[in-house]
Amino acid sequence: MDDAGWPTEIRLSRDKRTLHVAFEGGAAYALPAEYLRVESPSAEVQGHAPSERKWLGGKRLVQILAVEPVGNYAVKLSFDDLHDTGLFTWSYLRELGEEHAARFSRYEAELASRGLGRDPARRT
Questions:
Q1: What is residue 98's predicted lDDT score, i.e. its pLDDT?
Q2: Nearby residues of 117 by Cβ (< 8 Å), 6 or more positions away
Q3: Gamma-butyrobetaine hydroxylase-like N-terminal domain location, by residue (predicted)?
Q4: 64-70: strand order across its sheet
Q5: Sheet-wide strand order for 28-32
Q6: Which residues, in sequence order, are bridge partners of residue 66?
Q7: Residue 5: per-residue pLDDT
Q8: What CA dihedral angle connects 108, 45, 33 and 116, to 10 degrees?
Q9: Where does residue 93 rank: exposed (0-12), middle (13-18), buried (19+ CB within 10 A)?
Q10: Topology of 3-113 in CATH?
């Protein structure tokens, strides 16, 4: 990985809804917890093939409970919906930052096409 790919800062916001990531090359991103949750690199979300991809609705209010380093190449994020199986490598975090607008737009379109929304279901 080139020097621009190494993170210089990984910081969780006080409200636990945004992960701030800065890289040596100067790139910096504020990645919403919802976005990270629905783009988790775990097999639970991504499946084992593109056709197995899961589109998760109701994650607008999800929070990140923990950010744990994994070696010198990734972090493991634990979310308040108990998902914690994705390892976010430095290159994947950078990719998520660079592609945030396009990926999030695709996510919203996929939810709409499936009759799903970003808001959690209301309890009655």
A1: 97
A2: 57, 58, 111
A3: 10-94
A4: 64-70, 74-79, 87-89
A5: 7-12, 18-23, 28-32
A6: 78
A7: 77
A8: 30
A9: buried
A10: NE0471 N-terminal domain-like (3.30.2020)
Measured distance CA(66)–CA(52) in Å, rounded: 27
Q: Rounded to whole angstroms, how far apart are CA atoms 22 and 101? A: 18
Please give the angle made by the CA atoms of 68, 26 and 32, to the nearest 5 degrees: 45
Q: According to the 3-state scheme, what is the secondary structure of the chain?
A: CCHHHCEEEEEECCCCCEEEEEECCCCEEEEEHHHHHHCCCCHHHHCCCHHHCCCCCCCCCCCEEEEEEECCCEEEEEECCCCCCCEEEHHHHHHHHHCHHHHHHHHHHHHHHCCCCCCCCCCC
Tens digit of each residue's pLDDT (9 = 90 or more) over 62-96: 999 999 999 999 999 999 999 999 999 999 999 99
Domain boundaries, the chain: 3-113
Tokens 């990985």 map to which residue?
Answer: 1
Q: Which residue has the tokens 């979310």?
A: 79
**pLDDT tens digits for range 14-65:** 999 999 999 998 999 999 999 999 999 998 899 888 889 889 999 999 999 9
